[in-house]
Amino acid sequence: xxxxxxxxxxxxxxxxxxxxxxxxxxxxxxxxxxxxxxxxxxxxxxxxxxxxxxxxxxxxxxxxxxxxxxxxxxxxxxxxxxxxxxxxxxxxxxxxxxxxxxxxxxxxxxxxxxxxxxxxxxxxxxxxxxxxxxxxxxxxxxxxxxxxxxxxxxxxxxxxxxxxxxxxxxxxxxxxxxxxxxxxxxxxxxxxxxxxx
Length: 197
Fold this sequence. Notes:
By secondary structure, the chain is α+β, with helices and mostly antiparallel strands. It has helices at residues 4-14, 32-48, 82-89, 106-122, 143-151, 182-196; strands at 74-76, 97-100, 127-131, 158-163, 173-178. The protein contains 6 helices and 5 strands, in the order H-H-E-H-E-H-E-H-E-E-H.
């Protein structure tokens, strides 16, 4: 049977050529300057690049023309009849869907607007209204209203839009006319032919 001192001597002998690991020697020194420059470059690229959401609506706040609270939004694609546009402008069409963007951030509003238009198209809705507010009484211009004026023409299915009549929110809301679906166009054609026949 070995004695305690023999065990310790044996252990020391066996471990005599082992050296402790130098933790500092295995570390890579990172340059703080390079990291700061990379971070600054990424931030600059993010702020300068125009926002393109998955839905394709473009325009960061810096690239959108800011409107005043009482500016009237108006737009119609070529081919839209003047009488049709006039009826939209005067609020004569039945409003079939509403979207309220009050208290939305720009990113939230972009997503909500695009999804709303897609839902309207899916349900054959022709006339909708978007409430965005006027931004009246604030130090900054009406951001969401300005964004709506910038985004709506980017959606091919939007045929026309115009600021609402006073009873529907005035310049704080916008009527939106959407393209007829192929199914609705066929229904109208059949109805028109029955009337003639």
